[in-house]
Amino acid sequence: DKGNYRHFMAKEIHEQPEVIGHTLSRYIDLGARKVDVPGAAAIDFTNLNRILISACGTAYYAGLVAKYWFEKYARLPVEIDVASEFRYRETPIGKNEFALFISQSGETADTLASLRYCKENGAKIGAVVNVPESTIARESDVVFQTIAGPEIGVASTKAFTCQLAVLAALAIHAGRSRGFVNEDQETELVEALGAIPGLAVQALKSEIKIETLSQPLSRVSDALYLGRGTNFPLAMEGALKLKELSYIHAEGYAAGELKHGPIALIDENMPVFVIAPHDGIYEKTVSNMQEVAARGGRIILITDERGAAESGDVAQDVVIMPDVHEIVAPIIYALPVQMISYHTAVFMGTDVDQPRNLAKSVTVE
Ligand code: F6R
């Protein structure tokens, strides 16, 4: 049931404050301001040497964000691959390794094959899945369920942000177990996560602005997305969503990679989406934007009030997000990114919930 929405995707985008809230309530104790991750005790994070993450598509981008978190908050090395590569590359699996698989459906063939490879080679298996009775869930030692509810739109939206919510809680848990997150830091991080539902409501208010700026986008043939840190995976997610829904060719790049090649593409016909909250590396992104502006590129900047004030007016359009703690930025900034591709696709008249050539669950390789 689409309720009052035109498409399942719109409904699922707007459900995010609620379903992220449901998901968080399973993994954090907001009263005590502590993470409380059911099943995590089965993993000996203290003695872990490495986490291996495999997933496909949007779930892979959630894993890439989690890599930044596990490394920063838990000082735990993470190796991540798309599952279709991981399953064939015969990576050695050593002692004290934990393999983590991320999948909305829990049925993706390549992700499942990667899981079975790790299991045969003695790794402990965890899965972040949305469907608890799925094959990936059944074959895992520990399941961290996302409580996103059924996702009908083929393009993943709410499953992605719920995956990030679970992974953030798990990274904080790992950091605490390994002694890199102390009590005060845990309180701060858990409070930040607890603020997500309210911040997501605010982020959704940018929809009117996004609808307006999306109209001319429906006439372009290519687009670039740039981000740094945990917003780099989000740039790739934005590009994937635009390709899937509106069939516009798009690429996501780490902003620092711009001058190593993609800058050659920039001209006045090239929209460049910059995903950049005002954080410790914002200034670097401002200089990337100046490089784009100097070549006539059309910048659409997604940032907060401070970021807008310090952007030096290089952007043609600015989408304002609420101020957020850095751990929640990729979750909140996912919402405008999803809405951009949704509204562009609606203007183009493509089949938003069922884009051409795509299937919701990829059970063959
Ligand atoms: C993109 C999208 C796909 C899936 C991918 C993995 O919008 O939906 O890229 O994320 O096929 O699917 P799951 O998460 O079911 O393993």
From TrEMBL:
Keywords: Aminotransferase, Cytoplasm, Glutamine amidotransferase, Repeat, Transferase
Enzyme class: transferase
Range within the parent protein: 244 to 608 of 608
Record-level Gene Ontology MF annotations: glutamine-fructose-6-phosphate transaminase (isomerizing) activity
Record domain SIS: where: 41-180, 213-355
Catalytic residues (UniProt): K360
Subunit structure and binding partners: Homodimer.
Species of provenance: Roseibium polysiphoniae
Subcellular location as annotated: Cytoplasm
Function: Catalyzes the first step in hexosamine metabolism, converting fructose-6P into glucosamine-6P using glutamine as a nitrogen source.
Protein name as catalogued: Glutamine--fructose-6-phosphate aminotransferase [isomerizing]
